[in-house]
Amino acid sequence: MNAYQAIIARNWKSATPYSALFELTYICNHACSFCYNCPTGQKELNTRQVCEALKKIADFGVLFLTLSGGEPLCRKDFFEIAQEAQRLHFAIRIYTNAFLIDEAMAERLKQEVHPFEMEISLHGARPETHEALTRVPGSFNKLVEAVRALRRRDIKVLLKTPITRLNMGEVREIRALAEELHSDLHFDAVITPKDDGDQEPLQMGADEAFMKRWWSDEFKDVREEKVPLRRDDKDISAVCGTGRSGFALDPYGNIYPCVQWRRRVANIMEIPSLAEIWRGSSVLKEIRRVAEEIPQTTLKNSEVGDFTAFCAGVAWLQTGDPTKMYPQAELLARYRKKTYLELQARAAAGEVIEGLDQTFEKCGE
Amino acid sequence: MTTMGEPTAGAPRRHPTAGFRIFEGQATIVMPDGSYIHVLNEIGSRVWDLLDGQRSEKEIVGIICEEFDTTPEIAARDVREFLSTLEANRMLA
User: Fold this and answer.
1) Which positions in chain B touch A64 (Cβ < 8 Å)?
2) For chain B, does the N or the C end have fewer beta carbons within 10 angstroms?
3) Is the minimum CB–CB distance between B30 and chain A shorter than 8 Å?
4) Could you tell me which residue, A197 or A265, shows the higher pLDDT?
């Protein structure tokens, strides 16, 4: 374990957060069909309030700050906010659709914000696929040019692709595009409900036949996880980092244990400091308790529990119970376990399979 | 005489793009160029903390000497070596 991993492990054990995701606005210049955002019509935080919130987050010791939305670059005061974040010595990530990033914007980001990483949503390898989801003509070419502009300036880019029924036939081409653009790529096989519980986005998910193929040797060279990892719940004290390794804020200042589990903890404008609520909040205590119980109950009681990437927030939205196994998690775990067992058999027969004995990293690291 | 907050001429200073936090005496530093993460030991973290552009290298050596119970010669050598490493990694302004 290196020094950084030791810090992560220590922070995990003590539930000391090191990352925060701040949704600066729900305004967006795309209309993605499975967007999870649910604006409520309240007044979003103004510049002064956002900067005050950033100060509280910095004082609390959080290092990694993701500026998200909606589309964060749609805020007219984005650079003022980002420069304040930079002044507070955050390691800044920006989660964007990149539509507004041209050469001039890329240069401003480099010179004024110095982001550690840009996370950009990519929904296909072709304009027609990407734009079928974003519903904005021209958004694909804008994204590609934006990534080129960022990479020319040595700004790290992580492309994020939820696998949907529209793009599942292009995953290999999407991987190739990411390589061509010298960018990292993360595929997400899970489509989540909207934050208000609306299940409609789930209709966009890839079908079961594809998910079976996704975990086979056919896509081994496309997946990040070459060999399905098992959980090792001796080491994992909680199912994920919700309310533990990080937290999220919405554009109104409401604090949540993570971006997925929208159980409101407090409003950052109404508390003197995050330190006061982090240990004392009954909501957070319960969330941590539930997250710690899940490996020992829900997952232990499932025949595929040892291969399940379980999200209590998604479980809550889909079933009403954060501890209940939900269909997507079970389905994916089933195919992951099937592939693992096949690989195990091949290894027993003498084939060298790299990484077969690795286990899950903790969510959020 | 410098105004509070303005860098002292010649004083070593952290690179302004560095993201960092010091927690329980240990600094974690994220450099956007190259996206590197550095974790410093206790003395390195304290030196990093002192690199606000307000103190000369000599003053930093004096503080380290006091706080870590070491000789001026060893402190001077270690601080110089550390600053050279930071410079080589483009972590100084």
Assistant:
1) 19, 30
2) N
3) yes
4) A265
For residue B7, is it within any domain? no
Which tokens sit at A80? 């003022």
Cα of A37 to nearest chain B Cα, Å: 29
Chain B residue numbers with beta carbons less than 8 Å from the beta carbon of A154 are: 33-34
Q: Is B5 on the interface with A (CB under 8 A)?
A: no
| Pairwise CA distance, residues A166 & A164, whole Å | 5
User: How far is the C-alpha of A131 from the C-alpha of A123, rounded, in Å?
Assistant: 8
- Give B-chain residues touching A116 at CB under 8 angstroms: 19, 30, 32, 35
Counting the structural domains of chain B, the total is 1
In a domain, B93, yes or no: no
* B8 is a domain residue: no
Nearest to A89 among B19, B34, B35 (CB): B19
Closest partner residue to B30 among A61, A91, A155, by Cβ?
A91
Report the SS3 class of residue A191. coil
What is the ipTM score, two decimals?
Answer: 0.89
Residues A160, A120 contacting (CB under 8 angstroms): yes
The residue of chain A nearest to residue B38, with distances taken between CA atoms, is A4
Q: Give residue-wise pLDDT tens across range A143-157.
A: 999 999 999 999 999
| Predicted confidence (pLDDT) at residue A236 exceeds the cutoff of 80 | no
Nearest CA in chain A to B40: A3
pLDDT at A328 over 80: yes
Nearest Cα to Cα of residue B22 among B43, B47, B49 = B49
Q: Is the pLDDT of residue B1 over 70?
A: no
Q: Please give, rounded to a whole number of angstroms, the shortest distance from the CA of B46 to a CA of chain A.
A: 16
pLDDT digits (tens, 9 = 90+) for A15-56: 999 999 999 999 999 988 778 788 888 999 999 999 999 999
Residue B10 lies in a domain: no
Over residues A61-86, the pLDDT tens digits come to 999 999 999 999 999 999 999 999 99
Structural domain for B83, as ranges: 19-88
The continuous run of DSSP H or E covering A249 comes out as strand A246-249
Name the pTM for this structure. Answer: 0.93
d(CA A209, CA A202): 16
